[in-house]
Design goal:
By secondary structure, the protein is mainly α. It is built from 5 helices and no strands. Helices cover about 40% and strands about 0% of the residues.
Length: about 90
């Protein structure tokens, strides 16, 4: 039997059969922490919250790691930069 492009062989054992039948499960998207608390704008004076959104080196965490939505990620970015400028949080830890 010649294999051609796009041809898939039938499953040979029970494990392969189960693997192919598995459907994709969609997990509900978790809301960002600021959306859950209905906070419109992140405040630069909330130092404890801002420190959680930065690494030990002082870098701002990405949306994927922090779990923020796009709007609140931008708000966090502005708040962190304002707090750094005022000396509330360090540029580098």
């Amino acid at each position: 039997m010649a294999y051609r492009m796009g041809y898939r062989a039938k499953p040979t054992n029970a494990f392969d059969a189960k693997k192919r039948k598995r459907k994709a499960r969609f997990r509900e998207q978790a809301k960002c922490r600021f959306c859950r608390e209905k906070i419109a704008e992140v405040d630069y004076k909330e130092v404890a919250v801002l420190i959680k959104l930065t690494t030990q080196q002082g870098k701002i965490l990405s949306r994927k790691r922090s779990g923020n939505c796009a709007a609140h990620q931008r708000s966090c970015k502005r708040a962190i930069k304002r707090a750094r400028y005022l000396g509330l949080i360090p540029y580098v830890s």
